[in-house]
Amino acid sequence: MEINYAQLGKRIAKRRKVLNLTQDDVAEATGLSNNHISNIENNHSIPSIETLMKVCSALDATPDYFLLGALRRTDDAYGIKEKIKLCDDKRLKLIDSFITWVIDENI
């Protein structure tokens, strides 16, 4: 399996933006430089496993999401939880409304 580092960088940037974080925020949380975070996001640098794990921790995400763009775990509740982490406030409100509707309708 080949890793698409351009997509990995885009996923990191997307997750960072969903959390309303700057590259400086991620750099500070990981102990890496702002330049290094930028280079990873823009596919100018390939992160080491250690660096990727620091970024995962800082962005509260799994390596599967950044590397593969999908969650590999088969536990449905876990998958839903991980996908919810990728949502902004507007989407979270929509999800909450939908869940409330499903519960109220006894579907």
Summed up, what is this model?
The protein is mainly α and 107 residues long.
Considering the chains and any ligands shown, give keywords for the structure.
7 helices, 434 Repressor (Amino-terminal Domain), 0% strand, 107 residues, mainly alpha
Count the beta strands: 0
Tally of individual helices: 7
On the 0-100 scale, what is the average pLDDT? 88
The SS-based structural class is mainly alpha
Characterize the structure shown.
This protein is mostly helical. It has one domain: Orthogonal Bundle (434 Repressor (Amino-terminal Domain)), CATH 1.10.260.40. 68% of the residues lie in helices and 0% in strands. Helix 2 crosses helix 3. It is elongated. The chain starts with a helix and ends with a helix. The mean pLDDT is 88.
Give the helix/strand layout.
Elements: H1 5-18, H2 23-30, H3 34-41, H4 49-59, H5 63-68, H6 76-84, H7 89-105
Helix pairs in contact: 2-3
